[in-house]
Amino acid sequence: MTLTPLVHWAQRHEEIFLRVELTDAQNIDVQVQDNVLQFRAQGYGAKGLHEYEFSLEFLFPVKPQVHKSTQRQVNLTVQKERRGWWERLTLQERRPVFLTPDFDRWLDESDAEMEIWEKVRINNSFYVSRVVFGLKTAFLFMYNLVQFLGFSWIFVNMTVRLFIFGRDSLYDTFHTMSDIMFFCQILASVEVLNAAFGVVRTALIPTFIQVIGRNFILFIILGSLEEMHHRPVVFFVFYLWSTIEIFRYPFYMLGCCNTEWKTLTWLRYTVWIPLYPLGVLAEAVAVIQSIPIFDETRLFRIPLPKVIGTSVSFSYVLHVYLIFMFLGLFINFRHLYKQRKKRFRTKKRKAN
């Protein structure tokens, strides 16, 4: 004997949901012909294990394709031929006795419209986030590429000049390399903004210390004193800075592409161990050499109130700066060491 199962229904503007109360359904046959849905299956329904069937003639045309899933119950999804809200499901005004609203999925027309707008909002938000992520990745890639090219140009030119001119190249480094170094270090200020506004996930204080410290050495100590332009210490400062950066920036470039080169990764997290302290030492030598020049030229002297009637030499500021320089060395060295330890510890865990 063929029985009729209990069928729950709900609708959206573009589809109809039918939930047939049959568990462990087998031999499911669903067809849509002439706008009539025919269903037949065997399973456990209200009358136990039997063969169940029903038919529904829809109010408006539907597409013949039916999506079905057999989980705890049989779920059918029927696509409407035209988008719209139906006042009832079937062509006949009187609702079949086996058909009942699916209150788990039931929405009125206004709620369904809100659901559509929510989906549109989520899709738009996802699209916008993808666009923003793409623009951010492109910006970071181009920034790191420009910095890599700039520091590579400095490193290669200084190396070539050292081999060609020998010790003489130590005395004209500032005049030959300062323009590109000025450009790269001014551009490096972007890294502080990236860290401050969350464009990249990195600590703000170590980034700020490194960028401000380098710019202080470049613009105040070396750039403002013509007497420092011919000092060999300029060569060592520029060479150590560029040596570190030619490994750091390509590492970040590959990171923008979700790519890793193991050799480059090891160099990025290892080369700084000897070079960073040497760079700070070269910067300290430049500061010490500039102190008598500032005393002699009286440049950047700090005026005191007229009651005292004198001014303080900028060299006192440099003595204090030397203390903070080595404090910054400790902070940044500790930060970089933690980064290195975390990086290689994570890689070991993945390998295991």
Automatic annotation (TrEMBL):
EC category name: lyase
EC number(s) given by UniProt: 4.2.1.134
GO MF assignments: very-long-chain (3R)-3-hydroxyacyl-CoA dehydratase activity
Transmembrane intervals: 139-160, 207-225, 231-251, 271-294, 314-333
Major location (coarse): endoplasmic reticulum
Domain named CS: residues: 2-90
Protein name in UniProt: Very-long-chain (3R)-3-hydroxyacyl-CoA dehydratase
Protein's organism: Nothobranchius furzeri
Gene name for this UniProt entry: HACD3
